[in-house]
Amino acid sequence: MQRSLIFIFVCLFSLFARAELTVEITQGVDEPTPIAVVPFAWSGNQALPDDVAKVIDEDLYRSGMFKVMSRDNMLSFPADRNSLYFRDWRISGSDFVVIGRISEAEGQLNVAFELYDILKEERIIGEDIKANRENLRAVGHYISDKVFEALTGVRGAFSTRIVYVTAKQLAPSKHRYRLMLADSDGYNPRTILESHEPILSPAWSQDSSKLAYVSFESGRPAVYIQYLATGKREKVQSFRGLNGAPAWSPDGKKLALVLSKDGNPEVYVLDLQQRRLTRITHHFGIDTEPSWSPDGQSLIYTSDRGGQPQIYSIYLPTRDVTRLTYEGQYNARGRLTQDGRFLAMVHQNNGSFHIAVQDLRTGRVDLLTETFMDESPTIAPNGSIILYATQEGNRGVLAAVSLDGRVKFRLPSTDGDVREPAWSPFQ
């Protein structure tokens, strides 16, 4: 059992402060696309609580794919096609420009935006969006998603959310742990759960309405489900020994779990409607960290059945097991992209733990990070970015890397450590 606890709960950590997140770009693409986001014109008298254009500007910059023009370098601030002079923007070096205007009628805001190709002098997209003062940041993320998709062909994920775990040291042997929910850029953090005992393995349901996680609040690990809209939470069946690593099925009707109720850590699937528990793996090795394939027909999981932790797949209709990873002595915490082609994982290399990605079609493995203690990879729903936990000095931070390794950024906390990130599906 000691070996099981070390292997499965290696991600237990000592965190020392509650934290909000900021984003720092550390590496972008070699030739980012030049774009300008002009401050949106506002026809009202009372100042707005959020600068929509700034939200878009920061989103696109954080993606690492765009070089965003400073407002100080803009020759004018056009709000519509009639005041947009393409020659001026060509001189400034921008390839694209986003313009917009905000008006108010009967207490409701209307946010209009347009994206133009400067070289072709053509409008690419535009839309009018109804809003209120409280959701202007969300409108900014929505516009960022539209602009990003129009220019890259990849659906934007700026409107999604993340969860992560923080803690504050109250005494030498006492901590306060928090499960936090925030926008994808770290803004608007709020506490979902607070406990003096560790919180682990948060996982999103496919509709983004619920979280499953492991809490030690009763003195031993138990899996809980929390409904985000109401705050209601329920304890999933709890057994003697390990109860951990919950993972939602794509249809939201089942949870994959790791239980040791039969003496050895194994992967199980719990039907949440019928409360029927089915054992999936049968091996004397340790089987843990399950996650679902996008079609719900397979589970991938970590097992040391071959002597060292490696990632396996089990096809649920037949229970056929396939080993997926062979390169290196340690591969764990596997997560698939939504198309099922790429496997993100924690890979040991030269004694350090890094984030790597394996192309399941070709078998090629690419090392994406260079830090020494990387863990808990979670993939953006558009498959473009892997978010993970790592160490910066003596504290933990969240960091991210694109699937091709060309874009990197960090989300350090302002005053403490963070761990256990999970990125929401599209909403």
Helix content: under 10%
Ends distance? 40 Å
* Residue share in β-strands: 35-45%
| Structural class category | mainly beta
Q: Shape, please? A: globular
Number of helices: 4
Largest sheet: 6 strands, mixed
Instruction: Report the average pLDDT across residues.
Output: 90
Report low-confidence residues grouped into runs of 5 or more.
1-19
Number of strands: 31
Q: Give the quaternary arrangement of the chains.
A: single chain
Written overview of the protein:
With 427 residues, the protein is mainly β. The protein is 10% helix and 45% strand. Strands 2, 3, 4, 5, 6 and 7 form a 6-stranded mixed sheet that branches. It has a 5-stranded antiparallel sheet with strand order 1-30-29-28-27, with no helix packed on it. It is globular. Residues 1-19 have low confidence and may be disordered.
Please outline what is shown here:
The chain has 427 residues and is mainly beta. The protein is 10% helix and 45% strand. The protein is built from four helices and 31 strands.
Fold blueprint:
Layout lengths: L1 H7 L15 E4 L5 E5 L3 E2 L9 H11 L3 E3 L17 H7 L3 E10 L2 E10 L4 E10 L4 H17 L8 E11 L2 E10 L6 E6 L3 E6 L5 E6 L6 E6 L5 E3 L7 E6 L5 E6 L6 E6 L4 E4 L7 E6 L5 E6 L6 E6 L4 E4 L7 E6 L5 E8 L2 E8 L5 E3 L7 E5 L5 E8 L2 E8 L5 E4 L7 E5 L4
Parallel strand pairs: 2-4, 2-5, 3-5
Antiparallel strand pairs: 1-30, 5-6, 6-7, 8-9, 8-31, 9-10, 11-12, 12-13, 13-14, 15-16, 16-17, 17-18, 19-20, 20-21, 21-22, 23-24, 24-25, 25-26, 27-28, 28-29, 29-30
Helix pairs in contact: 2-4
